Every structure is written in structure tokens, then in C-alpha cells.
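About this split. The held-out portion is used to measure sequence recovery: a designer receives only the C-alpha cells and must propose an amino acid at every position. Recovery is the fraction of positions where the proposal matches the reference. Here is one held-out target exactly as it appears in the evaluation file.
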């Protein structure tokens, strides 16, 4: 019986990760510029819906935003808005159903209760974003994406404001 082979362990390369900076970024609240960037697109999509000229992508963007708001509620980061979120999701669903009645998208005007629910929830989502840390928003977004993809019908699109046909503020 021979001697057991022993391999000398190679020295490990140290990863240059600034863990303190990474932790601070995840724990910090969203900046005013980040909130404005997010909410500008949401508000413009809501405005297009109110005017009755929204594209299907704009309505779906608003729906995705409301699903993220609902996930924030479920995770318990900001509580007490589930009724408003549900009303906005029902309104968006009815707009999508009316817009796709013929099998092809055509913009549809909002009814008063739909307008009220969507406008209220856009304002409340702004409030939600002001209460969250970057990590909490990231967690909620990732959970919504994973849930939609696991249902089989979800497709992840990275959409810029210009893709939505919205004005880009400088």
C-alpha cells in the first residue's frame, strides 16, 4: 500500500468586494432621483390611460407596477393599501379586456371608477417607494418576476421610456 497522495492547497484569490458599501447600498432608501425616474414612467402611462390613447405595453407596464405594489404589501414593508391595489388591478384588468375584445389592441377610455382607482394607487405607490430600501424594492420586483415566469405566461421585457413612447425628461 502506497502513501496517500496529498495535494498542496492552492492559495485562494481574495475577492475585492467592498461588503460595507454593498450593504449600505442595499439598506439605504431610494433617492429622490430614483423615485422620480420610476414614477415619471408610471405617471405618464397613467396619463395615457386617462386620455384613452394608451398602448397595450403602457397598460401592461402600469399593471406590472401595481403587482410590485401588491408584493410590497404582502411582504409587509408598507401595509394597509391592499384594497386600493386590488381596485387598481381590477380596473386595469377591465381596461385590458375591453381593449382586446376584438383580438387586436385598441385604446379604450377609462370609466370613472377605473380612473379613480388607478390615480389613487399611483399616488400611493409613490408613498410606498419613499418608505422602502433598495433591497426591499429589489426583493419585491424579483418575486413578481419569478411568479409571472413560473405561471408560464410571463415574459420579461426590459423597457426604456422611449420604448413606451413616453417623453424622456432630461
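Reference sequence for scoring:
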Amino acid at each position: 500500500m502506497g502513501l496517500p497522495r496529498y495535494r498542496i492547497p492552492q492559495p485562494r484569490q481574495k475577492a475585492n468586494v467592498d461588503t460595507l458599501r454593498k450593504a449600505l447600498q442595499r439598506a439605504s432608501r431610494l433617492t429622490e432621483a430614483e423615485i422620480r425616474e420610476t414614477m415619471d414612467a408610471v405617471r405618464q402611462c397613467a396619463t395615457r390611460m386617462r386620455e384613452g390613447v394608451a398602448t397595450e405595453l403602457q397598460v401592461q407596464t402600469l399593471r406590472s407596477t401595481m403587482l410590485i405594489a401588491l408584493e410590497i404589501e404582502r411582504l409587509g414593508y408598507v401595509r394597509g393599501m391592499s384594497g386600493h391595489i386590488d381596485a387598481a388591478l381590477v380596473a386595469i384588468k377591465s381596461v385590458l379586456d375591453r381593449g382586446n375584445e376584438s383580438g387586436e389592441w385598441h385604446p379604450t377610455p377609462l370609466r370613472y371608477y377605473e380612473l379613480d382607482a388607478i390615480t389613487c394607487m399611483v399616488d400611493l405607490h409613490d408613498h410606498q417607494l419613499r418608505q422602502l430600501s433598495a433591497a426591499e424594492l429589489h426583493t419585491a420586483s424579483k418575486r413578481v418576476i419569478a411568479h409571472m415566469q413560473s405561471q408560464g405566461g410571463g415574459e420579461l421585457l426590459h423597457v426604456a421610456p422611449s420604448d413606451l413612447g413616453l417623453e424622456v425628461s432630461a
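Annotator remark: The two ends are 76 Å apart (CA to CA).
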